[in-house]
Every structure is written in C-alpha cells, then in structure tokens.
Specification:
- By secondary structure, this protein is α+β, with helices and mostly antiparallel strands.
- The protein contains 17 helices and 25 strands.
- The strands form six sheets. Strands 1, 14, 15, 19, 20, 21 and 22 form a seven-stranded mixed beta sheet that branches. Strands 9-10-11-2-12-23-13 form a seven-stranded mixed beta sheet, sandwiched between helices.
Length: 574
C-alpha cells in the first residue's frame, strides 16, 4: 500500500499557507502539467511570489469596470491565478476550487458535516466488504453544450486519470486504490477498490467528471496540452466558463439548466489583483465582493465600511520536518533532541509576530476545521529550561562559544525554507534565534521555491525543512506519516513506525467516524511522542467580503469546495 494522496493541490512549497498569494506572471495558453513530482493530498503549500508582472492596463480596467452589481454578478478577487480548470490536471488549491464552478463530481460534501452527499450520482451502494461502489447517475443531467451526461463519461474520466500516458497528477492516488472502473449501463458505474478506503468518497468521489464526447478523440499523451480547461471547458456544474483573460480575470455565466437549480446570480468572476492595495480599492468601490487573504497579510488590510472579515479555522499546518533517514543524518535520531527543539520553540511568539494572532498553536495534528480534530493527549508547552536539560542529558554540552558539542561535534544543522516568502523567512529567522538560545547553531538555507520543492519532494535533501501542509478534508494523513510515503508522498524525513502504519490502514478500513476518530487519536499520540515533524501553527482562513454578499454557510470546507455556490447571492437593491 502506498499512501501518497492526490493534491488538492499542489501548491507545493515551503511557504506560509496562503489563501491569497502574489500573482504569477501570466501563463502560456496551454501550460504543461507539472509531472516532475508526485501530486498528493495533503499537499505542501506554494510560497509568496516576488513582485508580479502587471497585465495590460486596458484589460485590467475593462475587467474591473463596476457596471451594475446585479448585472455583473459576484466578483471574487485573489493574488493568484489558476493553472487549469481541467479536473484531469488540476494540481493546486485554487485550480481545484475554481474547477468546481464548472465541473461536478459523483458526490459532493455536506458543508456542515463534510459527509458525502449526492451530486452527479443520485445514489450509491457499497458492498459488504467495503470495496465495491455502485453509482446510479441522475437522470436528465446535461453538459454545458446540451449533450446528456452518461455513465460513459464517468468511466472515461477515471480511466484517463488511471492512464500513465495522460500524466494526471491524480494518477498515484487513484492507482493505489482503484482496482477497476466498469460500465454497468448508461446510468450506472461500478468502481472496485483494492481494499476498503473511507477516504474514497470524500476525496476521489468529488473529482470533477469530464465529457467523453469532447475529449474522447484526444490522444492520452496529448491531453496535457489540449486547450480544454484553459480556453474552453464543458462541464455540468453551476457555471459556464466564458472568458479567461490571462493575468486579468476568469468569467463564468450561470448555467440555467443546472440540476440543483440555476445560480442566484447571472455571472461569477474571479479577478486577479496584483497587490492588497488593489484588493482594498475594489472592496471600497464595490467592484470586488470577496476574497480569501493570507493570515500573515491580513493585518495590512484596513477597516472598510460595509466589509466584514471572517476568521475561520482551516486545514493548513506549518511544520518543521526533521531528517530521520540515517543515510543522510543521525542528528535527530535521539528523540530528546527532537523534543528539546519543540519545547524550546516559543510558538505563541511565532503566532503573534508572524500572523498577528491570526493563527493557532498546533497542539494536535488534525486541523481545527476537521471533524476528527480534538484535544491531543500530549502537549509541548514552551519550556526552554526543560529543553536545555534534555540536550544536556543527551550529551550535548555548551562549548566556549555557547554552541553545544558532543564528542567533538557541534550541534549544527541547516534549516531549508523558501526565501522569497517574507512570512516564511520571518518564521525561519525566529526559529534560528530561539534555538540559538538553546545552544544550537542553525544555518538558514533560504532558497527559491523551485529548489525547495525539488529537494523536499524528490531528493529529500535537507537537515530540517520548514514547510506548510494543506490537509485534506478527510482526516486520513497516510501521505505524511505512512512509511509507504517515503518516496512518492509527503513523508519527507522517512519517519517509520509500524504501529502508526497499521493504525492508518485500520482507520480507512471503516466508515464509522467514531472508530476512525479513536484511531486518529491513537495515531496522533504516537506521532506526537515521536515528533518526526515539529508542529508549529495553524494559520486561520481569512475571508473578507462585502456585507451585500449572502452566503448560506461559510466555513473552510465551503471556501475550498464552493459547495452550494449556486445559492450565493447579492442582496437585492445592491
């Protein structure tokens, strides 16, 4: 069993987990999928980019033209641009999120419980052994071009993602779990799993379905460069892509024939802004209705009349991964050193200094937005005196220059982080200062995102790694803690614990949430005792929105999946 998970992203990176990041240089018309690293969910989070290239001023002005609020529909803004909307190739959180405006999956997630509920599939049956799912599709669902949805489209979608030649970033996640995808009849599909997997429906069942009648004639190896998902997109979702101006905006019009009911607004626009100042201007003049912004940057946004700021518990965790592969380093083999590092870290100071208090100290491993979150059995309060004692007990004694030594070896290691991200740089520098006070010499390796990603995910070349992990909505964390994720998952430092491996398997073998939660408590206790990674903080999810925008349910899951977006509306008279 291999536990690398498809990325809800890749936002692969060693940077503060951002909801709103700096805008990238406009993409080419058909960007190739990034297949140089395995794509997993959970995923690592992309860094803040340097100053972006500002798009053509005329195009920007056109995209930002106020018009009537009711006529233009809802306008979302962000400092980041998606790479593609094609569900076969989405590989970062923003692409995945905006793709869901156009493409629906077999199931969706209830915004209040995160339980799978019907979407394109009106019902499903699960075999007694938990390995066979039989889906019955809704009758009368049509693609945006008017063609009927059939079971052939579902089979086509999954088979293409399971085809190595397609190079879908979701290949590993699917191939490790799915044994067969079969057509039963025009409205029925049977998917057989290799073993029971409680994460199948909330993760793989929500993957957007693509039309066979549009993509069926495209050779598998050519799908990655096909314009589908870039200049055109045919889905079954609540909105229809009408225009994508690179570096400027994506515009969608309402699907009047959406099976859940036509959206409450005629249009939805995702507008790409270059700075927080531009976002502020749009919120003030009413040309922008809402945005997700980075918790570390939220303090820069002033109070704006008619605009509210929601601080939501999220799915993102900032950690320091430690190198446990003895072939690369033996420094962290002693658990007393690992514990001393965490006890000697003033995480409250990190939360206040870097995020202005808009983050939570990471006591446990399940994110605060997860239904599996709870009180951890082990806590590590800030206790530099105990950290000093543990290091001395482990044989590391202070040298003449204050740096601890043992048998002639200095207590020195390199901390790898993304230097272009100011928030991540600030965290790295604070850690360096705090650990220096313990007698530890930490050398900062502040590198480009591309180098950090390569060294973290391909080469595993680091002593310690500062990184953000975006946990999946489902609480399975096998991609990070399982030994099966040494090489193609996010088990960066080669953490190995057979008991954790076994409990991870047991936890996905049942759909009983009570049983799963109990197992995740046991896994959490074991991992927190071992400390292969040092959990630092959970940045909050910060949403800024106009008071005229009405969203029935607003939480981290809704922001991430846009579940129920057809019910969003602008207050009458706006």
């Amino acid at each position: 069993m291999r536990r690398s998970l498809w990325i809800v992203s890749i936002v692969l990176a060693c940077a503060v987990v951002l909801g709103c990041r700096a805008r990238p240089t406009p993409q080419p018309a058909s960007p190739p999928a990034d297949t140089s690293v395995p794509v997993s969910t959970p995923t690592i989070v992309a860094p803040v980019a340097p100053a972006p290239v500002v798009p053509d001023a005329t195009a920007t002005a056109s995209a930002a033209a106020p018009g009537s609020v009711s006529g233009r529909g809802i306008v979302e803004a962000g400092l980041e641009e998606p790479r593609t909307l094609n569900p076969l190739f989405v590989a970062d959180p923003l692409s995945d999120t905006l793709s869901r405006l156009v493409f629906d999956g077999l199931v969706t997630l209830d915004p209040q419980t995160a339980e799978p509920v019907p979407a394109l599939a009106e019902s499903w049956k699960v075999s007694r052994d938990g390995t066979t799912y039989t889906f019955r599709l809704r009758e009368g669902v049509r693609w945006h071009d008017g063609q009927p949805l059939t079971a052939n489209d579902v089979v086509f979608t999954y088979q293409r993602m399971l085809d190595r030649e397609v190079r879908s970033p979701r290949y590993s996640r699917l191939a490790e779990r799915i044994k067969a995808v079969e057509l039963v009849d025009s409205r029925t599909v049977r998917i057989t799993l290799i073993r029971p997997d409680a994460s199948f429906l909330p993760v793989l069942g929500t993957i957007g379905i693509v039309p066979e009648h549009v993509l069926g004639t495209v050779l598998p190896q050519q799908l990655v460069t096909d314009p589908f998902g870039l200049s055109s997109a045919v889905g079954t979702g609540p909105f229809i892509l009408t225009q994508w101006l690179r570096g400027v905006s994506l515009t969608f019009r309402a699907n009047p024939d959406y099976y859940r009911g036509a959206p409450q607004v005629p249009q939805y626009t995702y507008r790409i802004v270059s700075t927080l100042e531009e976002l502020e201007r749009g919120l003030r003049d009413g040309t922008i209705d809402w945005a997700v912004i980075d918790a570390a940057q939220a303090g820069r946004l002033p109070t704006i009349d008619g605009v509210t700021i929601d601080r939501l518990p999220g799915y993102e965790l900032l950690v320091v991964a430690l190198q446990l592969d003895p072939a690369k380093s033996k420094l962290f083999a002693d658990e007393r050193v690992r514990r001393a590092l965490l006890l000697g870290t003033d995480r409250a100071a990190l939360v206040e200094t870097v995020w202005g208090g808009r983050a939570r100290i990471a006591e446990g491993l399940q994110p605060p937005a997860s239904w599996a979150a709870g009180e951890p059995a082990i806590r590590y309060p800030y206790d530099p005196a105990e950290a000093q004692r543990l290091l001395s007990e482990a044989g590391w004694v202070p040298g003449d220059d204050g740096v601890r030594t043992r048998e002639g070896q200095r207590l020195h290691f390199r901390l790898l982080a993304t230097g272009t991200d100011p928030s991540r740089r600030a965290v790295a520098e604070l850690l360096q200062q705090q650990w220096r006070a313990l007698g530890i010499d930490v050398e900062l390796e502040l590198r480009s995102w591309a180098e950090v990603r390569r060294r973290a995910t391909q080469e595993r070349d680091f002593d310690a790694l500062l990184i953000g992990i975006l946990w999946d909505v489902d609480p399975d964390q096998s991609a990070v803690w399982s030994s099966d994720s040494f090489f193609d998952g996010l088990n960066f430092g080669h953490y190995l614990d057979p008991e954790v491996d076994q409990k991870l398997v047991e936890a996905v073998a049942t759909t009983d949430r009570q049983q799963r939660t109990a197992l995740y408590r046991e896994i959490e206790q074991r991992v927190l005792s071992d400390l292969p990674m040092l959990p630092l903080a959970y940045p909050d999810l910060i949403v800024v929105r106009s008071e005229r925008l009405e969203i029935p349910v607003l939480d981290a899951l809704v922001v991430r999946t846009r579940t129920g977006i057809e019910q969003w509306r602008l207050r009458t008279g706006s």
